[in-house]
Design brief:
Blueprint: E1 2-5, E2 10-13, E3 16-17, H1 22-32, E4 38-40, H2 41-49, H3 59-74, E5 81-84, E6 88-91
Antiparallel strand pairs: 1-2, 2-3, 4-6, 5-6
Helix pairs in contact: 1-2, 1-3
């Protein structure tokens, strides 16, 4: 079970700390705060990085990939972050 504690700058899986960078945690927190809603890359960038992205900036995609990798290692068989091609990402703890 994933537990996100933004005030403590922590994410836990089954009570064990998940090793995330601050940006990964901010990204996870932002996605999880909007379950089932597709967030555009621009929305995520503005929320996590605090500014508008450049046209060629792929930071959101890179960080989502890293975050997915860490989540899949900690929670095998669960897919929590879903891609919506050309739009952005959606957090769905139910699949």
């Amino acid at each position: 079970m994933l537990e996100i504690r933004p005030d403590e700058h922590a994410a836990l899986v089954d009570g064990r700390p998940l090793s995330l960078t601050m940006r990964e945690l901010q990204l996870l927190t932002t996605l999880a705060a909007n379950p089932q809603r597709i967030l555009t890359r621009e929305e995520l960038y503005a929320e996590v990085w605090g500014r508008e992205p450049r046209n060629d900036d792929r930071s959101v995609d890179v960080y989502v990939s890293r975050l997915r990798s860490k989540l899949s290692e900690a929670l095998p068989g669960q897919s929590l972050i879903h891609t919506h091609s050309g739009i952005g990402y959606r957090f769905s703890p139910d699949g």
